[in-house]
Design brief:
Structural class: alpha/beta
Number of strands: 10
Shape: globular
CATH class: Alpha Beta
Low-confidence stretches: 51-63
Order of helices and strands: EEEEHHHHEHEHHHEHHEHEEH
Strand order of the largest sheet: 7-6-8-9-5-10
Number of helices: 12
Radius of gyration: 22 Å
Distance between the termini: 37 Å
Mean pLDDT: 86
CATH topology: Rossmann fold
Largest sheet: 6 strands, parallel
CATH architecture: 3-Layer(aba) Sandwich
Strand content: 5-15%
Helix content: 25-40%
């Protein structure tokens, strides 16, 4: 394989739509430049070699990015084309509030410009929510519902794929601002909500996302100049709860002896454990009587339900790791289903750099979540120098 050294991989400005990319061949990446935007695609994973006793069992890293392993994400590319035509056409079909936000976020005179990938992510969600069904693109929503019916029959999920360091927390803030200001401007518009449940995989990430709270001193709405002063005052009316998925674990609400619990557990009776409804009341207590909320999943590749009928057989460490991930994923998605059942969920926005099904999920390892609508990959980030922003 010919080794290629690319002295400067940056081909595009981070604030405008990319129009160049490096070509891949069967030998890997080249220094040949193609004068067009890279299509959304993914690399089919190479199965790691089987482990043998007494041999090195270090983690396998897949770095063989070659043309023969590339598969196009057709659905994402078709959505991207529709959003691009709508953008060029002047953002027809949106609310006055949405138009004001897009004007503010895309103002060329901004001191702190937003990355194109951040703008495109919010544009895509806006297009699907406000525009697509009006202008002949109802197929997008139909496909999303079909994808979700297969994997998440009780939930409606839309995923945004963004490389680590490209600013997905900013996109979360934009989603919250867009929904809230539209809901306050027109309370009867059922497309929007001013109540948000942000779910993370751990306490560290949960604390980092405090910047999504309007009253936090370091909130992104001010820091990233996402809203005017008047809009900030309105945003303060939103209800935003940030938690980690562990909150969905059912707690014991009454103490009892081990023998009593063992006897009842054998009969599948759990009188000392929360019901799913009780769990939702505990987790979402701050929402009061709010219904039909918005859920934002951070690092959403941890949230899935194992596909029924899976026949994949795993052994040893692979089996233990898959079982651990499956239990975490089950708690997360079961919790969201309980929230949907108890208070209603309008939509779930999944954000992740790697929204792929994992080994043991029942889906082919490395398969992209089919409900991904916007893709900003690691190679895109490298070619645009879109890294290390909040």
């Amino acid at each position: 394989m010919r080794q290629v050294v690319i002295e400067n991989p940056v081909l595009n400005l981070p604030f405008s739509e990319p129009n160049r990319h490096f070509k891949f061949t069967e030998d890997g990446i080249t220094d040949e430049i193609i004068d067009e935007r890279r299509v959304s695609s993914y690399f089919v994973p190479i199965a790691p070699p089987k482990k043998r006793k007494g041999k090195d069992q270090s983690t396998f890293f897949d770095t063989e990015w070659t043309q023969d392993r590339i598969r196009e994400n057709t659905f994402i590319n078709q959505v991207r084309d529709s959003v691009a035509r709508w953008r060029i056409g002047g953002y027809l079909g949106i609310t006055r509030t949405t138009a004001q936000l897009l004007d503010y976020w895309k103002n060329p005179e901004r001191d702190r410009k937003l990355f194109f990938c951040q703008i495109e992510a919010i544009e895509t969600v806006i297009y699907i929510t406000e525009v697509a069904n009006k202008y002949g693109d109802a197929w997008i929503d139909n496909d999303l519902r079909r994808f979700n019916e297969d994997a998440n029959p009780l939930l409606y999920r839309i995923a945004i794929k963004m490389a680590t360091g490209s600013g997905k927390t900013v996109v979360m803030a934009m989603l919250i601002a867009w929904h809230t200001l539209n809901k306050l401007a027109n309370p009867t518009d059922s497309r929007f909500s001013d109540t948000f449940l942000v779910v993370t995989p751990g306490i560290t990430i949960r604390d980092r996302l405090r910047v999504l709270l309007p009253n936090d001193p370091q909130n992104y709405y001010r820091k990233m100049d996402l809203l005017t002063s008047d809009q900030m005052n309105e945003l303060g009316k939103a209800k935003i709860l940030i938690t980690n998925y562990h909150a969905f674990l059912l707690h014991e609400n009454t103490s009892a002896g081990k023998l009593t619990k063992d006897i009842l557990d054998k009969n599948n009776i759990k009188p000392f454990t929360e019901t799913p409804d009780q769990m939702v009341r505990r987790v979402c207590r701050e929402f009061g009587n709010k219904k039909n909320i918005i859920v934002i999943n951070d690092e959403a590749h941890h949230c899935y339900r194992r596909r029924a009928g899976d026949t994949e057989k795993l052994t040893g460490d692979d089996r233990k790791e898959a079982e651990r991930r499956e239990e975490e994923a089950r708690v997360w998605i079961s919790g969201l289903e309980a929230v949907k059942s108890k208070i209603g969920v309008k939509v779930i926005y999944d954000l992740s750099a790697t929204p792929f099904f994992l080994k043991g999920s029942g889906y082919p390892e490395g398969t992209l979540y089919p409900w991904v609508v916007s893709d900003f990959s690691l190679i895109d980030a490298i070619e645009r120098l879109t890294m290390s922003t909040p």
